Amino acid sequence: MTENDKRQIRLNHDEYTGKLTDRILHEKQLFTKQILIICTTLLGILISLKSGKIIDKCELISFIMVIGTLGLCILLGVILLYENINILDSALKETSNKKERLLGGSKEDSTLISVPSDKFYDRLRKVYYVSFGLSILSIVIYALISFS
Hints:
The chain is mainly alpha-helical. It contains 3 helices and no strands.
């Protein structure tokens, strides 16, 4: 295998890896948007259908818990949608840095731009999923309390 063949294999691998990474980011963003739509819709329905009377203190606490968890889920979802803007900004900076290195005489073969994953967003995504689960659980608890 010649050096040119090896270089071509690396370039093809980098292109394929880049496409996979883009697809994963797109699917994460799509999933986040879908959960965000569900939470926003549920919040709107709960608030609009809530009668003015609260008979029980447990019902009040459970309603506040539902509103709070849905609100938290919406807030986290909006922050996670910003993650893509942050990734694109980091990729732009890395592209400029790579161009400068190549112009400076670096012998890099790879065309792949590597942007490290931000641990903040990884942790936030986990909290987002947990808050969505808690909001569904709190809706069930609220329904059981208010209809019993």
